[in-house]
Amino acid sequence: MEAEGLERRFGDLVAVDAIDLVVEQGEIFGFLGPNGAGKSTMVRMLTTLLTPTAGSARVAGHDVVSEAGAVRRSIGVALQDAAIDPLMTGTELLRLQAVLHGIGRSAADARGAELLERVGLTGAADRRVGTYSGGMRRRLDLALSLVHEPEVLFLDEPTTGLDPTSRMALWEEVRSLNVDHGTTVFLTTQYLEEADVLAGRIAIIDGGRIVKEGAPKDLKEGVGAPTLRIDVEPSDLEAARVVLAPFGEERPARAGRVALGLVEGTAAVAAVVRALDETGIDFQHLELDEPSLDDVFAEATGRRLEGVADEGAGQ
User: Fold this and answer.
1) CA 116 to CA 114: how far, in whole Å?
2) Phi and psi of 14, rounded to 5°?
């Protein structure tokens, strides 16, 4: 899969801004960014649901505009806003999906049973989908996207709103698809852990542009020093920044917190605590973390990805 100068505008709004991207066959590629960054728009162009304003893209060797039909036959898509008829059963929906792909009845029934077992829904196969939990619906949507054994699978924020157990179950299925079946997976997410755990390579998108790209391990190592985070009273924030400045470069942090790259790591923590104590600055919480994808995002954009949706981009 590759994109060159891919762009999508909605009037004056540039949702995806001249993106170049290459996804290798057989890899899990993570597309990480906050809400509104352009992730879903990118997926919709790559899956032929939106026509690019400019640039080009090829998926499974086919152009997304001039060979849209061939692209659709080669891909599976599980969108975050997928519509599933609540009055049909899981078995009926899989059978319908198979018919749409030209699969015969006997083969469709066998394939449906196999997929329901794979995603852990055999016991709910003949229940109406309206009775399914959110996690069950997501797993059924995944099964529907796999009916025709696609070369490339697009998962658009597949675990949003799921409880931790359902999220981990879906992660395991994605890993199995990739490792056991060689399926190429293009995964969009706003969850740092999800991208870190699943993806061999990621691209971080912000404001429609890719700001970082590479293997999660390499990107985190590029940040350098571990991040020290200290929560202090708002009235002490500026004083704390002055006291902590000699210990490392300040990093973006949420309100009420000072963060910095602690150059000497754990060896400097005692000195930090002593410096704060000597100047009369009380703190409620202190933590030292190895570089994370959130630190990578912060270094590239000047703000934190974690909490952006809840706290605002400026914090």
Assistant:
1) 6
2) -100, 100
Distance CA 253, CA 241 (A): 12
* 92-134 pLDDT, tens digit each: 999 999 998 899 889 999 999 999 998 889 999 999 999 998 8
Helix runs in 13-104, H state only: 39-46, 68-74, 90-100
Distances (CA, A) of 173 to 98, 169, 183: 21, 6, 11
The answer to whether the CB of 19 falls within 8 A of the CB of 3 is yes
Q: Where are the domains of the chain?
A: 2-214, 225-290
pLDDT score recorded for residue 81? 66
Lowest mean pLDDT among 105-114, 165-174, 182-191: 165-174
**Surface-to-core class of residue 228, CB atoms within 10 Å of its CB (0-12 exposed, 13-18 middle, 19+ buried):** buried
Q: What mean pLDDT is reported for the chain?
A: 89
Q: Which CATH architecture describes the domain 225-290?
A: 2-Layer Sandwich (3.30)
81-86 CB contacts, 8 Å cutoff, 24+ apart: 82/141, 84/129, 84/137, 84/140, 84/141, 84/144, 85/129, 86/128, 86/129, 86/130
Does the predicted TM-score (pTM) go above 0.90? no
Q: Does domain 2-214 have CATH number 3.40.50.300?
A: yes
Helix ranges, the chain (H): 39-46, 68-74, 90-100, 105-118, 134-145, 164-181, 192-198, 216-223, 237-244, 269-278, 293-301, 308-311
Greatest CA separation for the chain: 77
Cα–Cα distance list, 159 to 23, 135, 199 (Å): 22, 8, 15
Q: Is 224 exposed, middle or buried (0-12, 13-18, 19+ CB in 10 A)?
A: middle
Q: Of 182, 216, 184, 194, give the one whose Cα is nearest residue 46.
A: 184
Contacts for 264 with CB less than 8 Å, ≥ 6 apart: 247
Give the single-character DSSP code of 129. G
Alpha-carbon span 253 to 258, nearest angstrom: 6
